[in-house]
Amino acid sequence: MPRHALLRRPALTALAATATLTLAACGASDAGAGTTTSAADAESCPGEVLDVVASVSQWGSIVEQLGGDCTNVTTVLASSAVDPHDYEATAADIAAFTDAELVVLNGADYDHWAADAVATLDPAPAVVDAAEVVGIEGEEHAEEEGEHAEEEGEHAEEGHGHGGVNPHLWYSPEYVQTVAGAVTEQLSELSPDAADHFAEQAEAWEADLQPYLDELESLQSSAAGRSYAATESVFQYTAEAIGLTDATPEGYRDAASNETDPAPGDVAAFEAALTDGSVDVLVYNSQTEGSVPEQLRAAAETAGVPVVEVTESAPDGEPSFVSWQLDQLQQLSNALGGGQ
Ligand SMILES: [Zn+2]
Description:
This protein has 14 helices and nine strands. It has helices at residues 14-18, 57-67, 91-95, 112-119, 130-134, 139-144, 149-159, 173-190, 195-223, 236-242, 250-257, 264-275, 291-303, 321-338, and strands at 36-38, 50-56, 71-77, 102-105, 126-129, 227-230, 245-246, 281-285, 307-310. Helix 2 (57-67) links the parallel strand 2 and strand 3 (71-77). Helix 2 (57-67) packs across helix 9.
């Protein structure tokens, strides 16, 4: 399940610190998921108020905005101290799904604990699975769907690989908008009298998103001909959207996405790339720490390669997808501007 647990430094509990790196965050559920709720304003809602549960805050914060006065939104995994890739749901997390009328999941095996919880519900709630909405499938789906199953299954056993699927869908401006559209559609279907309200909320959300889209567009010119390397894959969809070339050495990238430890040679190749000028910026996931990423960061700093910090989910206390993302993009803009 974890895509990059191997790179992680046990951070949360003394117990985890004694575990192997790959299992580092298994104790993380002790820290709690930081479940949050946002309540509807029933008096202002022109239709039926809906109970919505989002698996992770990356989608939960967007759903809150789209639902406006007409949704009670529970976000199960809302603490940035918890790694979603490694997360093991508690009984309370699973119970949070019980009365949901709509569940919003990331899918692509990112939050399979949530998909598993939803599968047990009777009656089944409506589900927006972001990966399904954008046409990306995780390994479990591939296995269920026959033809690919044997190949994928074998591959999966070796490295619990995700069939090459990058699950960080909220880092794609296109996917974010597509998924938001699907959420609005479901909300309107479930509470038709509130459809106008949901349409207004969607319009307001799109307006809020504009500065983020503008920043991406302006980054396209500064990213032209430039390259980045990344300690892991979280930023990949955004980098693709702005046309920044991925210069992460292949061996390292493959190891990170197959959840195997990068070989010393892969790490050395990465350090060499940082030193020889072939990388314009290092994208560093500060939410996924580990000795290898730290070593790479130090190498970048020594070589004068700017480091841009990104996070898997919005930092605690940052409820807005847009301001979270904008902050990162502005760091990137500065890094690219300063590196010329
Ligand atoms: Zn991740």
